[in-house]
């Protein structure tokens, strides 16, 4: 049985779900938050220590301004209303990506990280304004500045995930089969499961089924 320490998820399909069910992409983003809470609970139940959620990519700025603003308002409200509950559950929140948002949201993100920094049951890494290519290039630049030997071990020290183990498992919902500039370095040996369901329809049973499938997969890491 494979140990499972870190699950990464590309939460795809909110907009399509919203258009189909409510004729509104924003309705899908709101519904997707309910799925996030379900998956957090199941992650704790499965005793998984790290959960990384791809919430907003560097490419997502291309979306309509109203939709982007709605997404950030949802996040602000979530942090205001739910961070105390996450803290009580001994959950740590870490942001990966570039914090170039409004002053209000940046302050909320920083305060949430600080408040939960000592928690140990589960670490949620929220990928916001995150792009893996930028992360890798930036890591190389800083590695060269440091004048230390170029190696995989040293490069890892300059990634935004430097203190986080690489994902054992990547799940992408939404019936789309691509990585979309997400954790390209870190996913080198992750098992990847593509799920047909749109994110708001994804539930604990779906998640648990994928986890059980992962545990039975033979992982060779280049061996036989």
What does the model show?
This protein has 224 residues and is of the alpha/beta class. The chain has a single domain (6-131, 169-216), classed as 3-Layer(aba) Sandwich (Undecaprenyl pyrophosphate synthetase), CATH 3.40.1180. The chain is 45% helix and 16% strand. The chain has helices at residues 14-22, 25-45, 65-88, 103-116, 132-146, 152-156, 204-216; strands spanning 6-10, 50-57, 91-96, 122-130, 169-172, 191-194. A six-stranded parallel sheet has the order 3-4-2-1-5-6, sandwiched between helices. Helix 2 (25-45) packs parallel to helix 3 (65-88) and helix 3 packs parallel to helix 4 (103-116). The protein is globular. The mean pLDDT is 96.
How many structural domains can be distinguished in the coordinates? Answer: 1
The percent range for strand residues is 15-25%
Low-confidence segments: none
Radius of gyration from the alpha-carbon trace, in angstroms: 17 Å
CATH-derived architecture: 3-Layer(aba) Sandwich
Got a strand count? 6
CATH class: Alpha Beta
**What's the CATH H-level superfamily name?**
Decaprenyl diphosphate synthase-like
Specify the number of helices. Answer: 7
Helix share bin: 40-55%
**Strand-pairing-aware structural class:** alpha/beta
- Distance, first to last CA: 17 Å
């Amino acid at each position: 049985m494979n140990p499972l320490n870190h699950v990464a998820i590309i939460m795809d399909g909110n907009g399509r779900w919203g258009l189909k069910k409510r004729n509104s992409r924003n309705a899908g983003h709101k519904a997707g938050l309910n799925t996030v809470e379900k998956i957090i609970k199941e992650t704790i139940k499965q005793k998984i220590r790290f959960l990384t959620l791809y919430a907003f990519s560097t490419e997502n700025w291309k979306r309509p301004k109203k939709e982007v603003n709605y997404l950030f308002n949802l996040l602000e409200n979530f942090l205001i209303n739910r961070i105390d509950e996450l803290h009580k559950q001994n959950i740590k929140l870490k942001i990966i990506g570039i914090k170039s948002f409004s002053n209000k949201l940046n302050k909320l993100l920083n305060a949430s990280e600080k408040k939960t920094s000592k928690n140990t049951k589960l670490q949620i890494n929220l990928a916001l304004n995150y792009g893996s290519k930028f992360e890798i290039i930036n890591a190389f630049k800083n590695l060269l500045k440091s004048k230390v030997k170029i190696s995989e071990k040293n490069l890892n020290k300059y990634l935004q995930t430097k203190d986080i183990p690489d994902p054992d498992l990547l799940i992408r919902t939404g019936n789309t089969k691509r990585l979309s500039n997400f954790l390209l370095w870190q996913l080198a040996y992750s098992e990847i499961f593509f799920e047909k369901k749109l994110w708001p329809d994804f539930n604990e049973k779906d998640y648990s089924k994928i986890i059980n499938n992962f545990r039975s997969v033979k992982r060779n890491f280049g061996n036989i």
